[in-house]
Structures are given as structure tokens and as C-alpha cells.
Specification:
With 167 residues, the chain is mainly alpha-helical. The protein has 6 helices and 3 strands, in the order ααααβαβαβ. It has a 3-stranded parallel beta sheet with strand order 1-3-2. Helix 6 links the parallel strand 2 and strand 3. The chain is elongated, with a radius of gyration of 20 Å.
């Protein structure tokens, strides 16, 4: 992210080279670590890192090859109840994050999913991306945490700040 690349100069401007800086991430790859190291301008000072791996046994990943890569909606239909009507409850809709590669893609998928949901459930799908205001992000996470929102169509920005245990 372009804003993150500005951290180094700003931080060093306040503290100089003598003030220690710590970066913490839950699931950083080696490549991401290198990007952080270079972006925050740690320089050529001694450092140490702790790598505890990325195995998260509490996470379930549903991975399958796309049959219809041009239409992601067709790929996720199998996650919904086979029959939906006015009796379908909010809890019957799966709770999850659907990652896309752009803000526009998120908003388009939200609209497409809303078309297949019964009218009383259309508000349970939201888009989440870095271009939301901080207040909108907090509201979105709160709605997702409490189950009011069941599906977030999101960019990788949702990986930062997600502290929802029951996805």
C-alpha cells in the first residue's frame, strides 16, 4: 500500500535512528516481511524476528478450481441454501469473507448476490475495502461480528482488522 511506504520517513523523522521500532503481523510471508522491512526503513541495524508459522487450525479454507472464472457468482452459489424464500432465516445464510481483487469487483458481487437473495435478506451482504471510512469499517465489522451481515465481499484489506471468531 502506498501509504505504508511513507511510514519509514515519518517514523524516523520523529524518533531518529536510536528509537527502536517493532512491527507485528499475524501471517506475514517472507516476501511481506521484506516489504515491511524496506518500507518502514529499518535500515541496516541488528534485528530479530519470530516466525511461528501460519498454521491456524481454527480456520477452514474451502478451495476449489473455478469452473466459471468470468462469473464468480456461479462459483459461490453452492454455499447458499438450495431453496431460499420468505421463510429463509438470516442464520441460514453462510457467514464468510469472499475475497476479490478490486473494490469495484466487491461492489459488483454484492449487487449480484443481493439479486438472488429473498428481499428480507438482501441487507446481509456488504462490501469491505480500504476505501471505506474508518467509521464505516468499524460499523461493517460490528455488523459482521454480530451476524447482521453474513457475507463480506472484500479486498485483502479485510485481512487487517478482522477479529471475528465465528466465520
Amino acid at each position: 500500500r502506498p501509504k505504508y511506504r511513507e511510514f519509514g520517513g515519518v517514523l524516523r523523522g520523529f524518533g531518529g535512528l536510536d528509537v527502536p521500532i517493532m512491527s507485528v503481523t499475524a501471517m506475514s510471508t517472507n516476501g511481506t516481511f521484506e516489504t515491511i522491512w524496506n518500507s518502514v526503513d529499518y535500515g541496516h541495524r541488528p534485528y530479530w524476528g519470530l516466525d511461528v508459522g501460519v498454521d491456524r487450525p481454527n480456520l477452514f479454507y474451502h478451495v476449489r478450481k473455478f469452473e466459471f472464472p468470468k462469473n464468480p457468482l456461479l462459483e459461490i452459489l453452492h454455499l447458499f441454501p438450495s431453496e431460499m424464500n420468505s421463510e429463509t432465516r438470516l442464520e441460514d445464510i453462510f457467514k464468510g469473507l469472499l475475497y476479490l481483487d478490486s473494490e469495484a469487483g466487491c461492489r459488483t458481487l454484492v449487487q449480484e448476490i443481493q439479486k438472488i437473495l429473498p428481499a428480507h435478506l438482501r441487507g446481509c451482504v456488504k462490501a469491505f475495502s480500504s476505501d471505506l471510512s474508518e467509521r464505516a469499517k468499524q460499523e461493517c465489522w460490528e455488523g459482521f461480528r454480530t451476524g447482521r451481515y453474513r457475507i463480506l465481499c472484500c479486498t485483502d484489506a479485510a485481512g487487517m482488522g478482522c477479529n471475528v471468531p465465528n466465520i
